[in-house]
Every structure is written in structure tokens, then in C-alpha cells.
Amino acid sequence: MKGSTLTGAVATIVLSATLSAPAQQTMPGCCMDQWNPSGMHRDHWRPEHMGPGQRQRMLRHWTFMNDGVPTAYRGARSTVQVTTNTVAEGRALYEANCASCHGTIGMGDGEAGRSLSPSPALLSYMVRMPMAVDEYLLWSISDGGERFNTGMPAFRNALSEDDIWKIIAFMRAGFPPAATVQ
């Protein structure tokens, strides 16, 4: 009996402390993300709470979710077999064409990307998202960001489709360093 009473009292104290947390009081109507309490409030992700750069960055995602990809990319699937050589070639192509803006491991921290608004995509995270299917990635890299007013150049005339697939294979492999690719 004493054990269950003590457990109930502790649960009540913990629940009271959780419900009266300062972060929840400062964001009325917002659900606090207990895994990242320093700022990951769901209300921040509503369109009216997004800054212009974030809205601009999300436009491609919204377009994909609502309209899909342009006809030229519908049903596109990678044409390269993922091998150590393919990933190594993808790394070289990524370094030559993408790293200056997106950074060596896809964190959007490349020197050339520092002056861009919106900032370059965080490819390390984006490539693992459910929307990062073949046709979406091929479309993003091939057409670039002109349609969405971003600084992402179109690579459809600069790289072959196989080269783009090699870059995608490298990104999906987790941006491995050269020593582990060769």
C-alpha cells in the first residue's frame, strides 16, 4: 500500500511539474516537443509563422506534395547500380558541383552558400526524408531553384542524368569521406 501511494504521489508531482513548464506557458496552444524543448514548437511550422526564407525553401516540398513532379520526372528511377565505384564517382561529382554551397557533408555550410537566401538545403537530413524519392531528387537537381526563387542552379545541361544519379547515390550513402569510399 505504501509503495503504490508513494508512486502515485511522485507521478502527481512529475505531472504537475511537466504541465506547468515555463516553455508551455510562453507558447499558448502549443505542444511542447519533449525531445527538443529549446524551440521545436509545432506552432512554429505553420505557414504564418515561417519567415520568408523558410516559406521559400518549403515551396518545392509543398509543390511536390500537392502537384507531384513535372511530367518529365514522373516515375523516374535511378539508372545506376550503387557500388563503391559509383559512390566514389558521386563524391567527386558532388565535390565539384555541390559542396561549395551545400558543404562537404551536406549541412548547407559551404563557403559559396553563406550569402544565399534562403540558405542551401541541409541535404544530409533532406535525403533521408520520405519525400526524397528518386523523381523528387532528380527534379530538384536537374531543374534547380529558379521556379522557387532560390539560388540552386539547374544541372540538367551541366551534368548527365547518370552523373546526377551518382551524386544521389553518394548522398544516400551518407556522404562518406573519400577514405571510406575508395
Descriptive terms for the model:
single chain; 182 residues; mainly alpha; 9 helices; 48% helix; 0% strand; globular
Summarize the structure in words.
- This protein is an all-alpha fold.
- Helix content is 48%, strand content 0%.
- α4 crosses α8 and α7 crosses α8.
- It is globular.
- The chain starts with a helix and ends with a helix.
- About 16% of the residues have low confidence.
- Uncertain runs: 6-34
Biggest sheet, in brief? none
The helix content, as a percent range, equals 40-55%
Radius of gyration, Cα only, in angstroms? 22 Å
Q: Name the helix and strand elements from N-terminus to C-terminus, one letter apiece.
A: HHHHHHHHH
Offer a quick outline of the entry.
The chain is an all-alpha fold and 182 residues long. The protein has helices at residues 2-19, 22-26, 52-67, 84-97, 99-102, 123-126, 134-143, 161-172, 178-181.
Please specify the SSE layout and strand pairing.
Elements (H helix, E strand, L loop, with lengths): L1 H18 L2 H5 L25 H16 L16 H14 L1 H4 L20 H4 L7 H10 L17 H12 L5 H4 L1
